[in-house]
Amino acid sequence: MEIIRSYPTRQTSGFTKYYNQLNKHNYNVNLIREKACGLWPFILESLGVPSVYLKNKHGSCPICQAGKDRFRFDDKGKGLYFCNKCGSGDGFKLLQLYHRWNFPYTLQCVAQVLGYQSYYVWPKHISLYIKKIVPSSVTTENEICKQKKKLNSVWQAAKSISQHDPVDCYLKARGIILEDFPSVLRFHPSLPYYDEEKNLLGNFPAMLALVQESNGHGVTIHRTYLGNGCKANLPKPKKLMMPIRPGATKGAAIKLFQPNDEKLALAEGIETALAVYIATQIPIWATISAGGMEQIKLPDSISEVVIAVDHDESGRGQNAALTLSQRLLMEGRSVKRVMPSKIGYDFADMLVEGC
Q: What is the rounded CA–CA span in Å between residue 12 and residue 105?
C-alpha cells in the first residue's frame, strides 16, 4: 500500500517530462486496446487509481474529487465510467484525466502493465510500483493447469447439499425451500476466507456455485460464506475465485437449471434465480452481477427469455436488463422483463415476504 501512496499522481513534474521521451516508441493502439479488454480494474489499480473508485456502484469521482454519488465505474471490459460533471470515457481517458497524462504516455503505461516490453528500462522506483501481478496478457498452459487444480481441490472438498445443512438453512431463511438442489451448487463445511490484504480471517461454511462458460466448461467458483442461517459477517461474504484465465467469466453464468425447450429465465443472484424458479418452474441461470447480465451468452436454441430484474435504487440492474434485452431482440429472440414493484427488492426478498 505504501508503494501506491508514494506513486506520483495528478502532478506535472520532472517525472512527466522525464518520460515524455517514451512517446517516440510505437505501440499498436488497437492491439493494446484489445489486450486490455476485460483487465481494466487491474490496469487502473496498477497505475495508481484507488480500487475504491473501481467498484460497480455510485460514489465520489476520482477525477474531480467531488460528489458522493456522481461517479460510476461500469467497466464493461473497456474501463467505462461516467461522472455527472466530468462526463464519460474509457480506461485510457480515466488514466489521462486522473494523472493529467497525455495519450501516448498513457498508452505506454498500459502496454507496460500488460507485459509489452520496449528496449527502454524502467527506473527502479517505477519497476517496484508496476509489479507484474499478471506478468502477461497471455496465460500459459502451466498457469491454467495450476488454477484448474486449485478450483478442483475446492470443489472436491465440498459435497452435495442436503436437508438441514448450513446451505439448506441459509436458503430456507431466504424463503427458498427445495427438495432437490442443482448439481452446480455444493456445500463446503470449512472454507478459508482471506481479506483483500491476504489476511486469513477464519474458516467458514460456504455455498459454492460452479460458473460455466458457453461451452459448458467450468471456469471458476462463486462462494457465499455463511453464518448462522445468513451470510457470514465478513467484508465481502460473496466472492469469485480467480478464473482459469483472464476474461474467462465473460458471458459465463451459474447454470442452475438447464432448459429442456426454447425458454430460459435469467437473474443476477443465485437466491433471486432460485426464488424465480420456485415461482415459475422456468429453467433459470444466475449471471452473478449486472455486468454478467449484460454479457451473458445464450445457446442458439433459446428463443424466449424471461429476465428477472433487480429493482436497484441506483438503476444499475434495470439498465443491465435493458441492455441485454436490446441485444437479445436483435438476435431474434423474444424477451420479457419482470421486476418487483418495491425499490431495493429482488424476487428473493418478495418470496420471503410472501408477495
A: 13
Read off the C-alpha cell for 25. Answer: 516508441
- Indicate the domain borders of the chain: 2-129, 139-243, 253-355
Question: What does the alpha-carbon distance between residue 295 and residue 323 come to, in Å, rounded to a whole number?
Answer: 9
> Phi and psi of 141, rounded to 5°?
-60, -35
Gap between the Cα atoms of 133 and 142, Å rounded: 16
What's the DSSP call for residue 174? T
91: phi then psi, degrees, rounded to nearest 5: -60, -40
Rounded distance between C-alpha atoms, residue 151 and residue 158, angstroms: 11
Is there a contact between 7 and 46 (Cβ–Cβ < 8 Å)?
Answer: no
Query: Please, how many CA atoms are within 13 Å of residue 225, restricted to the half-sphere of its CB?
Result: 20
Q: Where are the alpha helices (DSSP H) in 159-219?
A: 166-173
pLDDT digits (tens, 9 = 90+) for 270-304: 999 999 999 999 999 999 998 899 999 999 999 99
The per-type count for the chain, helices as H runs and strands as E runs, is: 13, 12
Domain 253-355 has CATH 3.40.1360.10: yes
What is the pLDDT, as a whole number, of residue 101?
A: 85
How high is the pLDDT of residue 114?
78
Q: 28-60 pLDDT, tens per residue?
A: 788 888 888 988 988 898 888 888 889 888 888
DSSP structural state of residue 218: E
Distance CA 96, CA 107 (A): 10
C-beta separation of 65 from 158 below 8 A: no
Please choose, from the candidates 355, 255, 250, the residue with its C-alpha nearest in 3D space to the C-alpha of residue 311.
Answer: 355
The pLDDT score that the predictor gives to residue 340 is: 84
